[in-house]
Specification:
alpha/beta, 8-stranded mixed β-sheet
Amino acid sequence: MNDEQLLRYSRQILLPQFGVEGQQKLLHAHVLIIGLGGLGSPVAMYLAAAGVGTLTLVDHDIVEISNLQRQIIHRTENINQTKVASAQQNLLALNPEITIHCINHKLDTDELNQLTQQVDVVVDATDNFSSRFAINKACVQNKKPLVSGAAIRMEGQVSVFDMRQTNSPCYRCLYDDEDGSIEETCSENGVMAPMVGIIGSIQAMETLKLISGIGESLTGKLLITDSLYQEWRSMKLKKDSNCPVCGHS
């Protein structure tokens, strides 16, 4: 690292469990973020600010005025821009030293598999079950850690599914295909602005921990919050031996 980098990341480097070694790991890391909405916004901003060297951003939507209440990576002047272009512009303004790749279309199975193979961590910041199931399957097949989050109204949840660990469940162990039939979205049910920020920030923290190898991740746990009453609880998750995705992995 040069002197400017040492200064930029000095507050992290000061942490005894992180230090220069942890920062070097971030600088050499590559993270795939799928979804640049409410969750993906704080994830991308914190990973960029923290110095993750390469981010690949995937989203096929454009910025709309209704997004700006919670999708804090975008600005009013970005309305009608693609979300990935808007995000790239604002992330590079925050940290011009990182590399950002943008993909402005839905990934097919082959593309998702190829991308997953190339990165260190995958962050699922999508808002629908079909995407979550597809991302999970790619991570299981390629044994890449998946940081998953969801938020709606004033409630949220986050977990890590790390198939490098033999006892780790996958997302499909938690939800089955029928859960998609009762899917809820923010556009139908609403969401309080900071709610996605809370969950997205935890996703960013878990990603940094996975890359740097510090602490204990949320693997095997589901962290749930109800911000209306500011209540938190943690549930243990077990690998489903009959899971059609990871049951025999």
